[in-house]
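Input structure tokens:
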């Protein structure tokens, strides 16, 4: 999509499937923890928790892990306390990065992330230095199979969506953050199935890099995603196989 880069395929090159699975479970559990801590442990009334649980189940996080994490967050089970942070930085070739963090020790995390940047030709930036290059928005990915584009467009716009972007295999419904929940609920009530729904940071513009330069950025993002406290990395880089939709 014209959206953020999650770099899904990078990790596979390492062949560390067990480690990657453990890191993914850690990130999914932190997402559930934060959602339950802020909005309560009932997914029927806590939209963010519902999304987090659905994502965790889709990635095979055991039900016991989910229940235990919610119990910790709601105080029925002792555990650590996490906080959400947003780091900003510059990578090689002036690439802008936004990094969503969930950590129980911000000093440890800051040191780890700073070391990763320094080792790979980047640097952490002051608050606000990079964030202005990105727009916060909701994105709901609807598979094309069995979906009429015009009907989805009409339904989404009437519910408050800003746009519906057509991709090769899916439609992406774009919303303002404050309208994300109501649009998703409207799609659910209309029986529309979706593969993913989340709030993301979308770069206002993207930069193109040579293959060599892009590989340097890959290495930085890959290293950041290897950090357990990093949830998501967003960049303003245009991927080699990505079509512009702006």
């Amino acid at each position: 999509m014209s959206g953020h880069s999650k770099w899904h395929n990078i990790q596979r090159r390492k062949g560390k499937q067990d480690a990657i699975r453990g890191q993914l479970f850690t990130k999914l559990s932190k997402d559930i923890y934060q959602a339950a801590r802020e909005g309560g442990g009932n997914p029927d009334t806590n939209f963010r928790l519902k999304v987090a649980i659905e994502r965790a189940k889709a990635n095979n996080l055991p039900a016991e892990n989910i229940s235990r994490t919610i119990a910790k967050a709601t105080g029925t089970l002792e555990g650590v306390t996490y906080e959400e942070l947003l780091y900003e930085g510059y990578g090689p070739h002036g690439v802008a990065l936004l990094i969503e963090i969930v950590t129980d020790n911000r000093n440890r995390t800051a040191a780890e992330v700073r070391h990763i940047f320094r080792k790979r030709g980047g640097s952490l930036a002051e608050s606000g230095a990079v964030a202005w290059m990105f727009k916060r928005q909701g994105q709901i990915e609807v598979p094309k199979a069995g979906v009429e584009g015009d009907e989805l467009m009409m339904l989404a716009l009437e519910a408050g969506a800003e746009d519906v972007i057509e991709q090769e295999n899916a439609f992406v419904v774009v919303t303002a953050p404050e309208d994300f929940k109501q649009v998703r609920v409207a799609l659910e009530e209309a029986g529309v199935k979706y593969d993913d729904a989340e709030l993301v940071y979308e770069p206002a513009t993207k930069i193109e890099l040579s293959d060599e330069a892009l590989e340097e950025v890959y290495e930085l993002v890959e290293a950041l995603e290897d950090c357990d406290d990093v949830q998501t990395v967003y960049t303003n880089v245009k991927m080699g196989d990505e079509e512009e939709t702006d």
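Residues 133-203 form a domain with the Alpha-Beta Plaits fold (CATH 3.30.70.980). Residues 1-16 have pLDDT under 50 and may be disordered.
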